[in-house]
Amino acid sequence: MSSPLRLGIAGLGTVGIGVVKIVQKHAELLARRSGRDVTITAISARDRLKNRDADLSAYRWENDPVAVARADDVDVFVELIGGDNGIARDSIEAALRAGKDVVTANKALLAMHGQDLAELAESLGRAIRFEAAVAGGIPVIKAMTESLAGNDISRVMGVMNGTCNYILTRMESAGLPYEAVFEEARQLGYLEADPTLDVGGIDAGHKLAILSAIAFGTQVDFGAVEIEGIERVSIDDIRRAADLGYRIKLLGVAQMTARGLEQRMSPCLVPADSPLGQLHGGTNMVVVEGDSVGQIVLRGAGAGEGPTASAVLSDIVEIARGVRLPVFGQPAASLTAAQPARTAVPAAYYLRLELQDKPGALAKIATVLGDAGISIDRMRQYGQHSDSSVPVLVVTHKTTPDAIDFAIEALPRTGVLVSDPVELRIEEV
Ligand SMILES: NC(=O)c1ccc[n+]([C@@H]2O[C@H](COP(=O)([O-])OP(=O)(O)OC[C@H]3O[C@@H](n4cnc5c(N)ncnc54)[C@H](OP(=O)(O)O)[C@@H]3O)[C@@H](O)[C@H]2O)c1
């Protein structure tokens, strides 16, 4: 058997400790699969005295992650600290420059600086692997860079933030408003320290930007992702969407069009009986469409100690086996700067309008939609909400986002709305 593969792990939180536990529990299995022992030599975190629910006594402690990254007895630097800059980036760059391969779960860093890091790694002949960075335990990076390498990918979609999916499914099952379920999620510890990373769609947007780069051979461009979080999704919309046979999901969609690369992360309606519509709680799903393979659906735990550490170990074993791939599946120097395009692919839309209960109100709405070039597929009027208003739902035929924007701007001028109109895209899945 060849010499052991020696790991240096920086970050001993949820994921880091998960990795330590798998290395300890499956030492023999990992050695068989890798063809060599996989060992840990050095570790680092902020607080040496913290109780971490694992025996770390055999490993050398370093206060500074960069010392782990540069250590002579480390072959692979495993960065599990997080953050789109600072010590995570500094230590990864130090590791690459010291001739180490890198494994990370850090989607924020890759979404912001993936191109620079990939160019640095490849210029130095080193690997950066990041299976855990997108959709936790789901092997989507490997599927896209390797298993689907023979396909021209047309579209990648995903529900990739378990916290948002938990909030949306819990609102539906318990009939609770957003604010109440948000508070529940906070108390259960499901939210990041900065919750806008989750509910604002930023974390999921990071993941989508990474998948786009692999799918379309483009440089990661998080700044071009159109992002809208779930904060404005109301229990009314969840109920009405259900009435119409839909569920609301925070859905990421990336597709290459003649106008450029569309990337959007936003709440969308999907058919309740589709795989995405059937996704409950914290589970993630990624859907990839290729010209030869058709549609692939990958589903599994998107976060948590075990699933995320499982993905980190897959990268470690691949490095131990000697597998070397360009960071984003093709040489970083050959990734093109994508032309970002605002969403223009037509779709059906859901509109919820609260109208004054008076004759002619519906006709005025229909006129505005007609003027915008939007035709109506279905319209449903509900019983009176209050003495003076009625909720009306409209499902449009396929139309463009521009036409919807035009209508949303014009609708208040009818003088028959009692509140702002709500519009949500209905994604074909
Ligand atoms: N949690 C998940 O389910 C999940 C899923 C997918 C990807 N990820 C990614 O995995 C990475 C780690 O996430 P996590 O959930 O494990 O985070 P976490 O539980 O907050 O752990 C972060 C670790 O980094 C250490 N750390 C922070 N600043 C440091 C510094 N300046 N020097 C040394 N160590 C430092 C912390 O030390 P102390 O323990 O001493 O405070 C802690 O051990 C992030 O990039 C995250 O986005 C997480």
TrEMBL record:
| UniProt keyword annotation of Glycosyltransferase present | no
Its taxonomic path starts at: Bacteria, Pseudomonadati, Pseudomonadota, Alphaproteobacteria, Rhodobacterales
**Stretches assigned to the ACT domain:** 350-427
The similarity comment for this entry is: Belongs to the homoserine dehydrogenase family.
- Protein's UniProt name: Homoserine dehydrogenase
| Keyword flag Protease | no
Family matches, as PROSITE patterns: ACT
Q: Keyword set for this entry?
A: Amino-acid biosynthesis, Methionine biosynthesis, Oxidoreductase, Threonine biosynthesis
